[in-house]
Amino acid sequence: MAGSHVMTAPLRPLPRLKQLAREINVTVPTLARVIGRSETYFRKRWNADTYLLDLPGEEIETLARFFGVPASELGG
After folding, report:
1. d(Cα 39, Cα 31) in Å, to the nearest integer?
2. pTM for the full model?
3. Distance of alpha carbon 41 from alpha carbon 11, whole angstroms
């Protein structure tokens, strides 16, 4: 089949966050501390059955700075 291309969708915010965390081996408790929240609070969002990152914009921006990526990659 000539010209066959596989198109991949861009990662959504929560999967992108998980990918970034895996790349540098960062744990959920560490990320919770980065945003100044409890592990329970953060884990509930980490384990959500969604592609969205259910965090306030300020926390998304903090995580983006931590990973060195634009906040838009994490839904900010």
Report:
1. 8
2. 0.83
3. 23
